[in-house]
Design goal:
This protein is α/β, with parallel strands linked by helices and about 625 residues long. The chain is built from 26 helices and 17 strands.
Length: about 625
């Protein structure tokens, strides 16, 4: 466990020492609502508990106490936006020690849900560990584990979960934590895992040994190998039910390819590469992903989708999967090594520079499905598949055009991403014969949008004079690039200023989960997104509903990448069909190969109505 900054912690403690307790008194007006909220929590109705706690905050003598509890309940319900809104109204300077820790933990969770691991870690480092309850310490270590996972440091992620283990009381939480420890260590490349075994001590040593035993033991010998491991580590927390369960997990089967060693094997092998006797009759899919380093979190989301699609594959000649860490070697070299080890299909790489390196490396004997688009490169056997905002922009714009819109007011964040989206929309819209009335920018994540439409008008020069003209007179719709937090504030703000134009938005406006507040704040907004998130009636094994447990463990910003991984696995064996003009109905849209073997996606469009988006059909085909 990382040592907390003692100076900062002591300063916080001293500052809080003079604060009066913010716990509600017995006669607090919100006591009845609080009791009902606690009942809802025990029943698992986190959203209902959050609503009651929020109401309690509106009438209580200590509103921040209840706002914190509401924020916690909303987070448990998966509603980061509502939680962030409530935490924004809490003044941390007036919180007592216990609630100040809760405030920090909640904000760290929100940062992690948005993929901001460094910000989350900074918040956690500023908390006084010595003042935490055992439950808070368990939460603290779990959050740090998630942050390290996003940062690509799987070893420290596992260590933090090991530190959390004795602080967990629920059997379900213990089981999930054990699974997370084992899966994290199992995904380390062999050289990294082997280095951990040198000098490892205590519980961590036992976990590393268990991961190595399972990886290097044939399935029919695993039960005995695990029994031997248990004899060596008689007091280990994984001993017993959890370790025994590993003998029954079919996804852990592993066989060493000929010639592989712990030093040369670059990735974790999840499924067999060879039939008994050395036959290589089954196809092999090599997956090139940055499994460590700064891009490990999005890579992990893609891998989740690939693994899920592989698990759901019922084909008789089901391919094996082999993962290679592109952070650990030169991508063209890894590609050639994968072919030498029997790969018949290749998925990846993910980073644009790696796509370029592979495209420029010479002939590609086996077709490659890259997981990004690099507009500057192409190769005859390289297919480029990415969830690019440009494709989404074009389909949102085409939807507006289909609805007979002509003149746009553009609103986008003043970030590099915002400018990229705004520039592409402007170019596309003008080529389609449309007009841009004005472009407005804002600071993403801000709670102050007062300068966004300060004049609520377009200034048109007339002989040196300027005349304010209401936007409704010169624009017939708004194109909005915003995330859920910004969008839920900007649209009502526009309406309060009298700007009541139809809104067409980017999918970043939708977190992927229905929310009671969406119908009120985003009512009428049209956006286009991947079908996997929008079709709530889907019930197959790869639907968002069926994979809910894996989805909730994935940072919100990366959840669409699970669908990308699903499609990548299913497309890898169909690249020749795509080249010949076939279309494929995937989780990320209806897919076809366009110019330069770039995969084009036809999205689904929806409109906010009531508590969730309502499907209104497919985007116009491009």
């Amino acid at each position: 466990m990382r040592i907390v900054n003692r100076v900062a912690a002591l300063a916080i403690t001293a500052a809080l020492a003079g604060c009066a307790s913010l716990k509600p008194a017995a006669n607090d007006p919100a006591a009845r609502l609080s009791a009902e909220a606690q009942t809802r929590l025990r029943a698992g109705d986190f959203s209902g508990a959050g609503q009651l706690y929020e109401k309690a905050g509106g009438i209580s003598n200590v509103p921040d106490y209840f706002r914190l509890r509401a924020a916690d309940a909303y987070l448990r319900a998966g509603d980061s936006a509502a939680s962030r809104r409530l935490l924004g109204s809490v003044d941390p300077r007036h919180l007592d020690t216990d609630d100040h820790i809760l405030y920090g933990l909640l904000n760290a969770r929100i940062d992690l849900n948005a993929g901001r691991a460094r910000e989350a870690m900074a918040r956690l480092d500023g908390l006084d560990y010595s003042q935490m309850t055992p439950a808070q310490k368990g939460h603290y270590h779990t959050l740090r584990a998630s942050a390290y996972n996003q940062l690509g440091n799987m070893v420290e992620s596992a260590r933090e979960r090991i530190a959390a283990a004795p602080l967990l009381s629920s059997p379900d939480a213990v089981q999930k934590n054990n699974e997370a420890i084992f899966d994290t260590l199992s995904r380390l490349p062999d050289p990294v895992l082997d280095r951990q075994s040198e000098g490892a001590m205590g519980v961590f040593e036992g976990w590393v040994a268990l991961a190595r035993v399972v990886r290097h033991t044939a399935p029919d010998q695993r039960a005995k190998a695990i029994a031997d491991w248990a004899a060596r580590y008689p007091n280990h927390p994984a001993r017993g039910a959890f370790a025994d369960s590993l003998t029954r997990r079919s996804d852990l089967t592993a066989a060493e390819p000929a010639g592989a060693t712990a030093e040369t094997k670059p990735a974790v092998q999840i499924t067999p590469l060879a039939e008994p006797g050395g036959s290589r009759s089954a196809p092999v899919v090599a997956v090139l992903l940055p499994l460590s380093g700064p891009y490990a979190a999005p890579a992990e989301a893609i891998r989740t989708g690939i693994d899920a699609a592989h698990d759901a594959d019922t084909a008789q000649n089901k391919p094996a999967l082999r993962f290679y860490d592109t952070q650990a070697g030169d991508v063209p070299d890894l590609y050639r090594k994968a072919l030498d080890e029997g790969a018949t299909q290749v998925i990846g790489p993910l980073l644009k520079e790696d796509v370029a390196a592979l495209a420029n490396s010479g002939e590609l004997p086996t077709p490659v499905l890259a997981l990004n688009e690099n507009p500057g490169v192409s190769a005859s056997r390289l297919f480029q598949f990415g969830l690019t905002p440009e494709q989404e922009v074009e389909q949102v714009a085409a939807s507006a055009r289909l609805d007979n819109r002509h003149t746009a007011l553009m609103i986008a964040p003043s970030s590099a991403y915002g400018q990229r989206v705004a520039n592409h929309f402007s170019d596309y819209w003008r080529r389609a014969g449309g007009r841009i009335a004005a472009v407005k920018t804002y600071t993403a994540g801000s709670n102050d949008y007062s300068t966004l439409l300060e004049d609520v008008a377009v200034l048109v020069g007339q002989g040196g004079q300027t005349t304010p003209i209401p936007y409704e007179n010169v624009a017939d719709f708004i194109f909005l690039a915003a995330d859920e937090h910004d969008g839920r504030i900007i649209k009502p703000y526009l309406e309060s200023l009298g700007v009541n134009l139809p809104v067409y938005a980017m999918s970043s406006l939708y977190s992927g989960k229905p929310d009671p507040g969406l119908g009120r704040e985003l009512n009428g907004v049209v956006f286009c997104d991947i079908p996997w998130l929008l079709d709530e009636t889907a019930g197959d094994a790869l639907s968002e509903r069926a994979l809910e447990a894996k989805v909730t463990q994935t940072p919100q910003n990366y959840r669409r990448l699970i669908a990308m991984g699903i499609d990548a696995y299913r497309l890898a064996g169909r690249l020749d069909e795509l080249r010949s003009g076939e279309r494929f109905e995937g989780a990320t849209g209806i897919l076809k190969a366009g110019e330069g073997n770039r995969i084009r996606r036809q999205l689904s469009c929806a409109q906010f109505e009531g508590n969730s988006p309502r499907l209104i059909g497919r985007a116009p085909s491009q």
